[in-house]
Structure formats: structure tokens, C-alpha cells
Amino acid sequence: MGEFELIERYFTRPPRRAVQGVGDDCALLAPTPGQWCAVSSDLLVEGRHFLSTVPPRALGHKALAVNLSDLAACGATPTAFTLMLALPRVDESFLGGFSQGLYELADAHGVELVGGDTTAGPLCVGITVFGDVPPGQALRRDGARVGDDLWVSHPPGGGLGDARLALEVLRDQAQLAGDGFAALRRAMEWPQPRVALGQALRGLAHAAIDLSDGLTGDLGHVLARSRVGAEIDYSALPRSAVLAAQPEPVQQRCLLGGGDDYELLFSAPAAARPAVQRAAEAARVGVIRIGTVQAEAGLRVRMPDGRVLPQPPRGFDHFAGDA
Amino acid sequence: MGEFELIERYFTRPPRRAVQGVGDDCALLAPTPGQWCAVSSDLLVEGRHFLSTVPPRALGHKALAVNLSDLAACGATPTAFTLMLALPRVDESFLGGFSQGLYELADAHGVELVGGDTTAGPLCVGITVFGDVPPGQALRRDGARVGDDLWVSHPPGGGLGDARLALEVLRDQAQLAGDGFAALRRAMEWPQPRVALGQALRGLAHAAIDLSDGLTGDLGHVLARSRVGAEIDYSALPRSAVLAAQPEPVQQRCLLGGGDDYELLFSAPAAARPAVQRAAEAARVGVIRIGTVQAEAGLRVRMPDGRVLPQPPRGFDHFAGDA
Question: Is the N or C terminus of chain A more exposed, i.e. has fewer CB atoms within 10 Å?
Fold first, then answer.
């Protein structure tokens, strides 16, 4: 099977909203009248963003999920995406699973594959996603204000750091006593972008970001761009029972250094608490207050004994290595 | 230098037209009123689309050029792009050259880098480019009509196949008698997207495509989607003096199998010949008629002796190998 048959078989459907979809030099989109276009691009590389053992269907899901998560963080409604795929060779089993996972998530969010590029090469997946957002209403990183509550979203019964813990278990950096690995692996391979929550937070949240590089790193971006500081209540951070059973250093690394959470971190005024709770219920996702925006620069993590954690784990940096 | 400092130093400028550029979860674009948005994504992988010896500045140029070429082929006006870059390590010399080449071409076309992603990994560059095109006026692959002229663009004094010949010389598949390699290498590493020509052809050309995978392959896409056939006059194909000095089999491979030309191939009615010539002069690029669209399916390459070439070299397919 050649490149063009591959595209035809696995990545071509009749366009729905797009004026022109896969198969020409360009896709053509008719912008939604009166809306701004939010754009995000994420590149996933084997061995960096996913393991070689990832099920293809999960990879298709995750590649789109991490991009939808960026749209969620700015409160946009997903509309379309392009796919760039480098593959070592044509592998129909891989392509079948990958495209299934990709389309399942796309259909769940009403977002359409409109074009892209397929080539031979080391396995990597680049997606550019488009969304609509009303002018001036996008959530941004630079809007946090002193006195705001800091919130994070979390899955029912779950929390931050499970994806990181899954990776640590696979790397023998952490051990599991019980049988919780399936849930951890699910957190790592099947992140759920908080698209509905992001949209519901427009007009409520002052600032938002999605947690992809870990809480301290991503919160640090919000604080730097908003020119504020913050205090986090460590005991308030949502964590799964599996993570809560880990030794304290592992918990700290996973909760604070984290990575691959794809939950929303946002700030909102105290007066908006009931509205934030209603937004989360409508979006069927948990939210919890984890701290407060302060005037003093920097991030302080307050531990249960009242002391401030001296050196919180850093967020992930692709060229500086793990937290 | 970490990921975020790298982005800040090499890939961040104040937004011009974009509402929000690099540095948040999403870029925000205000669509041009009354225009459709043309979108194209291309992924370039080391060893596949460029050699490890490519000068970084040329790579920055080429990565954007091949995407602008897709916009050219649909007659769109470039507006913005995102960049996904996987790098084995932070290499400031590489980044300086790469970003210089990228921004030089971006500035030449008034197109703005609005976001993207940087990660560690095997060297590859993915760009998604956006352009404006008036509703219903985009050039497409499926509009060629029986009786249309077939045209290709070409550089002054140059033609098709020089990039392919450069690659063949580097791979010892072809030899150069004289000192023409600098020009060939320039064709391979510094393709010039025919953006102005593409825009000027709106309303004139019935169909268009950019030549990235070779003449027979790309023309084949146009013919298949337009449900027509064509005859090409081999002796009319524009070729540089360097290529014209090659043995006939090399010329055929390079002209017909080609690859990496990034010229426009388009069809237009005979009545439009003067207008096509004027469009090309305004765009400061050469154009030449190379054949005719016919009702009979398939592609016939007419040789100087009057015979049809039995097996023309195929176009490039990333999973089927070279022509």
C-alpha cells in the first residue's frame, strides 16, 4: 500500500463542515461568522511522549486529546484539525487502531480531520487543531489576579499525577503494592480533554492553562505571565487512592512535577465559586480549589505541617529533562 | 537552555496581525471578513525530505517554502503558520540559522509565526500554514477540462528536475561534467513558492497543483480527480542547461519522476493564454505550455520522435520509494 492509498483508506471521509477536506493541496474552511479562530499545534514523538508499547488506538486518541486540551484551556469550541504522521513503514494493524482512536475522539467532540501529511520516518504525530471562540472571550495565561482562587479539574475519584506514576512504575522508579496499574495506564494513555469545562469557564475564569508539563511548571507559566505569585495547599491537591498509597516523595513528584495530566488549572474570583461549581457539574468533571493567587512573586507549596516546601519538583522541560 | 527559553529566544516576536501569538495554549486569529481559510500541513523528516548536511538556514526556508507552495497551488494569500520542531538537542548554531531562514521567507510573504511546539526527538519539522482565499475561488485539483492547456512554472533559465538531479549527484546516481552543482543544490535547498502566481491564476486556471512528488505523479492526481487524461510534449518541458547536458535516462527521471520542484502545474483554457502570460510576468516567474488535457484517461508523454514513452517514471510515494 502506498502513501496515497493509505490516506484514502484510513484518513479520508467526506467533509462535513469544511468546504474542502482531505485530498487537495489545501483544506478550505469557512470561518464561523463573528468568531475568532483558536489554533494549537502539538507534536508527539515516540519515546518522548509515548512508549513504543502504546496501543495504536490509544495513541490516536492521545495525539488528538492533547491538542483538544489546548483548545479547552482557552475555552474554544473545536472545529477541525490536520494530521501529520511519520511512520517507519505501512502497518495496517497500527493504522487501523490509530485511526479508530483518532476518529472516536474526533466524533465525540464534533471535530473534523481536514488534511495533513503522511510520510516515512521515525514514528511521530503532529496535529494542528482549530476552534472557535467569541472575540475577546478566550481564556489566557496572563489574566490571574491577586486574591483569585486557584482550581484544578480532575476525573471522578482521580487526581493529578497518575500518568506520571504510571511512567515511574514502567521505569521501575516506583512500585505498586496492589493492582492499580490499569487505572494509572488509562490515565497515561487515554487523557480526557476538558473541552466542555473550558467553554463553561469563559467569563468566569481570569486565567487558565492545561496541565501538560506538571503543576509547578504550568502554574509557573500562568504566574509569570500574570506577574503574580501563588500559594498552593498541598493537602488539597486531588489524588487517586493509588497515588495516595505511594511514599511521600513519589506523591510529591507526581502531583507537583507531574506531566501528562491534561486537566485544567485556572484562577477565578472567590465570588465565582458557585458558578464554577455549576460549570463543572454541567461539564461532568470534578473541580477543586488548591490555592490562592498572591501579590508576592513565586510559588509557595504549603505542606500539611504548615511549612513551605523548600524545593518543589520542577515542571517538565523537553530539553532540561524530568522534574 | 531549556524548551521555554529556546522558544522565547528563537521563535517569539510580537504578534502583528494575530490577536495572540506564541506563548499561550492557543494562538488566536481574527479571520479576514468574507474570506475562506486555506490550511495545509507538511512534515519534513531528516533523511527523507532533507539531508543531514543541509544548512540550517536553508532548512528553515524550505520547511516553510513547501507549505507556502501548497497555498500557492490553491491561490491563497498566506497569513500565518505554526511550527512543530523536534530536535535531538539544543544547538544554538542550528537554531539561529534555522530561525533566520524561516523568518526571512515568512517576512518576504508577510506571513506570521503564531504558535507551535518544540520537543526533543529525531530532527523533523512540521508546519501548518493558513491563507485567505475568496469564497469559491480556490484553485483545485479536480477542475481540469478536456482541451485545456497544461502549463508549468519555472525559474528564469531553469526548469523541472534540478532538485532531483542534485540528489542523484549526491547519491552518485548521476555525474556532473562541469561546475553546475551550486545551482542544483540551490534548487534543492531553496525552493521558491509561487505564491504570487497562484493568486494571479485565480479565475484563469481550471485546476492547479504544486509539484512536490514529480510531474507524472502530481499530474496524475489532477487527472484522476478531474476524470480526464492528458498528453505531455516531452521536448517542451523546461530544463536547465545542467540537466539538459545529462544522459537522456537521467533527464527523463528528473523531469518526469522529479520531486521537490515546488513549481505550479496548472490547466487553463486556450483563450486564457495571453492572460496567463501576463499573470506570470506580473509574478516574475516563467510559465510554459507543456501539453493538453484530453478525454482519454491516462497520461501520454510524447517524445521528440513522435512515439509515446512506454513507461514514464512514476512520481514519488513515501511508502513505495523513488521513481
Answer: N
